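Q: Give me the 3D complex with phosphoenolpyruvate.
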Amino acid sequence: MATVNTSGGRTPLIAGNWKMNLDHLQAVAFVQKLHWTLKDAKHEDGSVEVAIFPPFTDLRTVQTLLDADKIPFGLGAQDVSTKDSGAYTGEISGAFLSKLDCRYVIIGHSERREYHAESDDVVAAKVKAALAHGLVPVICVGETADDLEKHGASAVPVAQLKAALQHVPASADVVVAYEPVWAIGSGQAATAEQAQEVCATLRQAIATELDDEAAARTRVLYGGSVKAANIAGFMRQPDVDGALVGGASLLVDEFSSIIRYQKHVGV
Ligand code: PEP
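A: Here is the predicted complex, encoded as structure tokens.
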């Protein structure tokens, strides 16, 4: 197995997945309040990258606000089509997302895999489409409680990641999010040690599928019931480079506290 240098110099990424919450008017109020909170705390210094993933219908409004007020948050979408254009009712092309200055797109979230029957091949095709349009895919992988019992924690996430990377060149900029399905929205997060173990294994899989340099460069996030009270423990782990946050990303004070995890004791 390749040995990966985890010292890497990777900028931590705290990403907020809003899911189907906050319309475009609520989004404006939220983004302004988050920005002011972080600015007051002198926390927009670039040491932690912040990205938000609003619903599609908010993207244009949020893009305009980030641009006009020079708010240093990355913008991302929650999904992308495998297709570039054409008769695909309801689909959103990566080309459209790039035009809205989206930098990121979440791909393979467990809710898409479960409720929209997204297979590993569809996820791989979406990753390919995202890269073709200059977007950074945030590739979500994770095991269900059943998988955990039958196969342990790493087997399913590693298999999902290998499938997702099948069309990815080693030079590509991707983010990986380890999200145990049993931890999402349950209030029961993985322990920091569990997250570290799986994130390290995923990094090794990147080395095997791409190369050592890609493994050292790629940010691997943990997601699943992250909150202000547990973020510091995750961020102390050498292979956890940030968090994908669902419910807590909808609360300004909680999310800003997660972003400011360096201020928490011991980090
Ligand atoms: C998610 O859905 O990506 C997620 C991590 O949700 P939560 O933080 O609410 O568990």
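A quick observation: Residues 1-7 have pLDDT under 50 and may be disordered.
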